[in-house]
Write a structure and sequence with these properties.
The complex is a heterodimer of chains A (123) and B (130).
Chain A (H helix, E strand, L loop, with lengths): L1 H5 L5 H28 L5 H9 L1 H29 L2 H4 L3 H28 L3
Helix pairs in contact in A: 2-4, 4-6
Chain B lengths: L21 H32 L1 H12 L1 H28 L6 H27 L2
Classes of the chains: A mainly alpha (123), B mainly alpha (130).
Chain lengths: 123, 130
Amino acid sequence: MVSQIISFSRNGVADWLVQRVTAWILTFYTLFLVGYVLLAPEITYDGWHALFASTWMQVFSILALISTCAHGWIGMWTVGTDYIRVHLMGEKAEALRFIYQIVCILTLVIYLIWGIQILWGIK
Amino acid sequence: MEKDNRPINVGIFDLLIFKWPFAAIVSITHRIAGVALMVVIGFGLYALELSLSSEAEFNELKMMMASPLGKIVTWGSLSALAYHFVAGVKHMIVDFGVGETLESGLFAARAVVLVSTILIVLAGIWVFQP
């Protein structure tokens, strides 16, 4: 039951869907960035700065960041509930998994806040 | 809570006596790449911060990425991303009902390894070219 309340949406099917939708968003974002880096004749500070300062890229990037948090959390939660189990490592597994999950969530939330701070700090 | 008959993950020593189907190896590697990406994101955000702070820091980042360690980190990150991306796209295709049989699953696993190997090699050439 603790597993259920700590998962992303507390419903497995909903989490599956969130994982897929965020995967699609991240696919497009990745393709765009890789395409830009490969196809730009030269990547200069001015060009790079102008790209990330534009409104649409700000929206796209923060959308990708939020998607990363959701997608990453669902993945890490799955890994934790797969392996940090009582039958694999004894009774301490429940506490260990809880700590693991808190660390994962904190990492992703810190990434999100840091990313927004970077993007909105562009002058 | 452990008393029902739902399938459970086996212990680590059991892994040594089980067969390892190719598709299973591709699947666990997809997971490992995903966990690795959790760290890569940190590097990526740091690089993004440097690249957008000032022209001086942008150039500083370029120099760091040109160092041997920088190239290895960049290539490693791109490789983890490429593999996870390709295997993820495979999952998306399966979501549409294509590749759900045993035979097509094996074909898909091989395709994932082939495509990601190509991308990883290309990324290596791009990063390490003189």
